[in-house]
Amino acid sequence: MGTLATLGLFVGAMLLLVWVFQRSLIYFPFDEVPPPDRLGLSGVDPVCLSTADGLTLGGWFFPQPAGASTWTVVVFNGNAGNRSHRVGLAEALRARGYQVLLLDYRGFGGNPGRPSETALIEDAQAAFAFLTDRDGVGPGRLVYFGESLGSAVAVQLAALHPPAAMVLRSPFTSLVDVGRVHYPFLPVGWLLEDRFSSIDLVGEMTVPTLVVAGDRDRVVPAKQSRRLFERIAGSKKLVLLTGLDHNDPALTDGPPLINAVDAFLATFGDDDRR
C-alpha cells in the first residue's frame, strides 16, 4: 500500500473516531451532587423535573418568601460540572431578591440519559413546565439565564416559550463556529451532529436580552458574543467585562456579572412582571 493510501486510511480512521466520540468532546458531566446542607445551603427545595420522554431530572429551587413579587431565574448550565458548581451564582441572585432554579441536564448530576442537543432542549422544556406550574411563577416573571453552552439552550427554549427576559453569559454564534476556533484542522462543519446554532434563531426573537462576556475569553471568543448580540432583533444590552476569561469567578458568579443582571432587570417595571 502506498504512502498516500496509508495516510488517507489513517486520517479517515481518525475522523471516524472523532465523529463516533464527538459528544465526549462536548459534554463533561460530573455525577456527584452533595446534598444542600453539606454545601451550607438552607431554604433550598430539592425538586424533580419530568421530561416528555419519561426521564426524571434532579434540581434545586431557591425560593423567596411566599407572596414576594420577584423574578424567577432558571439557569441553563454550560457543558461541564453539575448544579452544585452553580451554587455561588444561585445564592448571589437570591441575595438580590430573585428566585432561582438550578437543574442538571440528563447525564449530569447523576441524572439518567445521555446529553445531546435535542435532549437538552427537552430538559429545558421540562424546566419551563415545572416553573409555570409552580405557585408564584409565571411566564411574565421568568428569566432564562444561559451560560456558554447553556446560552444556546436558553435561546432554543426562548424560541419555543418566550420568557420575560433572557441573560446570555459568554454566548457563541454556533457550536460549529466554536469548534472551528479550537479544532481548525478538522472539518467541524461536516462532523458535528449537535450544532446549537443560536445565530439562526435570535434574528427572529423579540425577547429583551442581556449579553455578558469577557473580552479575554479563550473558550468563546468575545467577537462571537458580540456578533450574536448584533443579530438579536429585540431590545438588548451588551456588557463586555474587561480582562476576564471564560471561567473567571467575576464572570461566573461575581459582582460584575450579578450587577449587570440586576441593572438589566431593574429596567423593567412591576407592570412588566405580571
Keywords:
two-stranded parallel sheet; 274 residues; single chain; 8-stranded mixed beta sheet; Rossmann fold; 9 helices; alpha/beta
Task: Tell me what you see in this structure.
The protein has a single domain, classed as Alpha/Beta hydrolase fold, catalytic domain (Rossmann fold). Helices cover 34% and strands 18% of the residues. Strands 2-3-6-4-7-8-9-10 form an 8-stranded mixed sheet, with helices on both faces. Strands 1-5 form a two-stranded parallel sheet. About 5% of the residues have low confidence.
Quick synopsis:
The protein is α/β, with parallel strands linked by helices and 274 residues long. The protein has nine helices and ten strands. Helices cover 34% and strands 18% of the residues.
